[in-house]
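Supplementary Methods, section 5.1.

A reviewer requested that the exact input to the structure prediction be made available. We therefore reproduce it here, unchanged from the version used in the analyses.
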Amino acid sequence: MGWLQRLQDGLTKTRKSVQGSLQRLIGAGPDPAVLEEVEEALLGADVGVRVVDRLMERIRTEGVTTESDDPLQPFKDTLLQIFQPIQSESLDTLIQQGPRPYVLLAIGINGVGKTTTIAKLGKRFQQSGLQPLFVAADTFRAAATEQLVTWGNRIGVDVIRHQQGADPAAVVFDGIVAAKARKSDVVLIDTAGRLHTKVNLMQELEKMKRVITRELPGAPHEILLTLDGTLGQNTIAQAKQFHESLGVTGLALTKLDGTARGGVVVAIAEELKIPIRLIGVGEGEDDLQDFQAQEFIDALLQVDG
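The structure derived from this sequence is encoded token-by-token as follows.
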């Protein structure tokens, strides 16, 4: 199955939540009752109030015509305008063109798929000829370290780890030292994800960032925040807090196949203006892919016959 088909399948729940009203809009035109139904459906898909207002204004101004090759083109054009400012090079390109070792600090609350995202990235980078190194800096949860070690053993990537309860910054220090000694191309650092409202977690992450910068000026080169797409608008509040503390440079959105609220990708782009690097629409290794705005829009607003 190609990536576009997986994306379309992964967004099925979200697309179905808005599809009926979009079909009626195409058939009925700018009928006030249908427009209200479309508005409610888009809000239910967590597209966000600001985006919905823009979309509805575009439809009220331009209308929908069945004579067009794509009656939903005004919607698609508006979404593309929202995504264009956050389009960026893929992580692979950034790393290939970046310094050595390239340091990626992965952050996010527990349960969002952060460790799995790191593992999948490690395998991808390895397959493209790079030498990755994992750093298990989530010393709060033994399961997180064991998960990363299991992945490392499976794909042949070394893991720098300490005992549970160790100072995460010390693990990070050892990871950077090891990466320089082994001439690693990219360092992927897993971190703890206790609730984003906890001040001590943010202070812990800020300390890790300081250690990285001290040992390797200019690093971390990527601060990748993983967000769970099933959490809808709550992800925006999380992202804002992490961004204020650490300066997030990219986002990875996971579990979009498990929610009817996948429109939150649009709301995140509108609200945060942070590049969306990756989206996940399944559990398989190939289901974590670079975010492509046009493909996402087409999959989201595809109206089945």
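The longest strand covers residues 222-228. These observations are discussed further in the main text.
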